[in-house]
Design brief:
The structure is a homodimer of 458-residue chains. By secondary structure, chain A is α+β, with helices and mostly antiparallel strands. In chain A, 34% of the residues lie in helices and 23% in strands. Chain A folds into two domains: 274 residues, 4-Layer Sandwich (L-amino peptidase D-ALA esterase/amidase), CATH 3.60.70; 134 residues, Ubiquitin-like (UB roll), CATH 3.10.20.340. In chain A, α1 crosses α2 and α2 runs parallel beside α3. The longest helix of chain A has 24 residues.
Chain lengths: 458, 458
């Protein structure tokens, strides 16, 4: 309901392609999701995704946590061994994902466990362990039951992996830990074919992640598959810049996990022209990756532990995009804002307070978002420009604070409470300083979050 | 219960002087705490503290929030007008504190309100408005009832302020909003007298603060009074360095408020030698300020909204003190660690994960803690050095993780649960990298925090 008088009601224009929440399998991949017996509950805890034609270009974004888990360390080493520069891209023919144990803080024994799993996958598939990428999620400090995982590998390879959408859906189910929903997003696009004409490419991502989520590089587990064509370095660049405006803007609880990883694999099986050389192909692949990442991030925030809604903060009028993203991230990360949204309280003072604390992201994230190394270094962790006298805030479509008009806008708290009773609560901020825009995704802080994280070891 | 085998049980040696939780009034000041009628509850909401001999050296640490409240802006301007460089010290003869309304995000009208209150204080006391410092706390975005506050000023000045400990205690009570306890701390020390011999100095702080507390400069409201002798610049330097290792290491909920302020006023009425020139006097005053600040920070964390205990994280073996403080702060700021402590779950994996994310503080905080401007700029917001293979973690005296011995230490979770059932839960981390030490203070995340912050506008 935007009006000429109140641009705060207008959402940020969205130029991204439409997303379907489906596990559409891109050409050139097969998958399986099943139960290996890691989880005591007996729920699915094992997924294997393979590039059916052998190693394909792969790129990754990993956690910034110094306590990186064994699967993160091994995947990083494998990409370094198969790729060039930067170290986070190379070639891979399989992604193995286990849930129930994070294999983090398990020392040398944990590293050996993960390596043994890679060897088992390579032996069963007939490839090299360095072409296996690893994902794991679950309790920190517990060992993976290697024998059970290796047995599952042999079993699923014997039974045969499937090329179907359903199989990729099963893989998505197996990624889940405390997730209440299965997270998937898919985009189709037309791009120039390698041999002329146009071809359809598919970009499909699956993901998990509901707790220990916070912007520091990647923020949970995800695998994005595409049959588009790109070199490892190009795939990495497109993935990293998509993550900078989506997953890096997602926070559930301010904790960056030890296992956060996003992998993207490009089979090239669509016959598309290479994104390395064809600008139309590059642009379409980049947009599709961003759209998939953004939708997965929204699904992850909505399913945050204990969450009852998605909180989206969209910021316009910032001095630049980095500032806009910083302010959006500060707002959705604020415990007090999150608790207020839970209570459906249009407490704009807490939003103003959070915005006033915003710090621009770290240099690595700024570079990924397109800043030069010098600019990124100069801006990193600096306060975002915020002027109370020029800022305006709207909550769920209700103008709450209008700096240029003197401050408090006399919001109708009852009407705002009604409007906040929704699946998505949109907080809009116009900073009145420039043309920078950005958004971030979070969720309410509820008693259920506390209960879930104090009563059980997760 | 430290043992030679397990130094993790040993707390960081504490060289600070003993603290009494009393409102001992230093010589040269008088105070009053009463009800002005700002709070609808009718509870005390007004405090006035005066330097009885006229303006005395004063120093401040203010919030880093860009949405700084009217009392912060006015106090900053007054110190700038009465002091020199840096702008956060000067001369003051009165501190007026109101609670119930923060007078934040109230625009020009809010600034005018606060100025009118300063004029009322100066008129009643017979001084200048620029010598009045302002504190306010409460709901953001509501106006202060200036007439009620001005009437209270006239009434208390007519009735007379008292030099007594009880009067300072009443002022401490009036600072409270959702605080469940009155926070005060006092240290006595012997220092060289200005005219030879030794004299006793008193440093007493009162404080409030239970929510919207996070390290960014100061982190709540506090007034520290002393009858020691120091110039504004020296007082500021000692206050800032004390805050860097105490209040800057305190987090309740990750939100830095719009009103955070600490004032220190030094009457010189003890007859002590000046801390500007006498190293013994300087050292004693610095230690006393740090001891008072540390104890107030601990009281504030213990009384965090919904908190059931104090969480202290002490870090040794860091590459340097800045890293140690960063790791300690990351641990006590983690929602997952806070929820685990609430559940008395010795979940060391979450502690390891939080430690692995630690980022060193901003440049201004590092400078306050003693780093050179160049070193501070180079270190600011950089990851703290953490090596899982060298790190050890103990929770409430129980060794949980021992990197050098291979990782998980086989903690007895039942015994640890018993030990965590205490007023203070001590998390000890030795990083095994160097000689840096640091500590931080926080509190459990509970359902009561969520309830308190979602059901009511605060």
């Amino acid at each position: 309901m935007p009006t000429a008088d109140n641009p705060l009601l207008a959402p940020i224009a969205d130029a991204l392609p439409p997303v379907e929440r489906a596990s559409r399998m891109p050409a050139g991949f097969a998958a399986v999701g099943t139960t290996a017996g890691i989880k005591v509950s007996g729920r699915p805890d094992f997924a294997l995704i393979v590039a059916t034609g052998g190693p394909v270009p792969a790129a990754a974004v990993f956690t910034a946590n110094r306590f990186a888990a064994a699967p993160v360390r091994l995947s990083r080493a494998n990409l370094r061994a198969t790729g060039g520069t930067p170290a986070t891209c190379g070639y891979a023919s399989a992604v193995i994902a286990t849930s129930g144990s994070a294999n983090a803080a398990t020392g040398d024994a944990g590293d050996a466990d993960q390596a043994a799993i890679g060897v088992a996958v390579a032996a069963a598939m007939g490839g090299e362990p360095i072409h296996v990428l690893h994902l794991s999620t679950g309790v920190i400090g517990t060992r993976l039951p290697v024998n059970k995982v290796a047995a599952a590998v042999r079993r699923v390879v014997d039974e045969g992996l499937e090329y179907t959408d359903l199989a990729l859906g099963h893989a998505a189910v197996a990624l889940r830990t405390t997730d209440s929903t299965t997270k998937m997003a898919s985009v189709k696009a037309e791009v120039p074919g390698a041999d002329g004409g146009t071809v359809a490419i598919t970009v499909t991502g699956i993901a998990k992640g509901v707790g220990m989520i916070h912007p520091r590089m990647a923020t949970m587990l995800s695998v994005v598959l595409t049959d588009a064509t790109a070199s490892p370095a190009t795939l990495r660049e497109l993935l990293r810049s998509a993550a900078a405006v989506t997953w890096d803007q997602l926070s559930v609880d301010g904790d960056t996990s030890t296992n956060d990883t996003v992998f993207a694999l490009a089979s090239g099986a669509s016959g598309a022209a290479s994104a390395d050389h064809d600008t139309a192909a590059r642009s379409a692949l980049g947009s599709a990756l961003e759209a998939v990442a953004r939708d997965l991030a929204r699904q992850q925030a909505r399913d945050g532990e204990g969450a009852t809604a998605l909180i989206t903060c969209q910021v316009t009028g910032a001095a630049d995009d980095a500032d806009a993203r910083a302010v959006a991230r500060a707002v959705i990360s604020s415990s007090l804002v999150k608790a207020a949204v839970h209570g459906k309280d249009a407490n704009w003072g807490r939003i103003a307070g959070a915005a006033g604390n915003a710090l621009v992201a770290e240099a690595a994230v700024l570079e990924a978002a397109g800043l030069s190394p010098a600019d990124a270094a100069a801006r990193a962790c600096q306060p975002a420009a915020v002027d109370p006298a020029r800022m305006r805030i709207a909550i769920a479509g209700h103008l709450a604070y209008d700096g240029p008009a003197g401050g408090p806008a006399g919001i109708d708290k009852g009407a705002a409470r009604e409007a906040m009773n929704a699946e998505e609560v949109l907080i809009r901020i116009d900073l009145g300083l420039g043309h920078g825009t950005g958004e971030a995704f979070g969720c309410p802080l509820t008693e259920a979050y506390v209960k879930e994280n104090s009563e059980y070891t997760t």
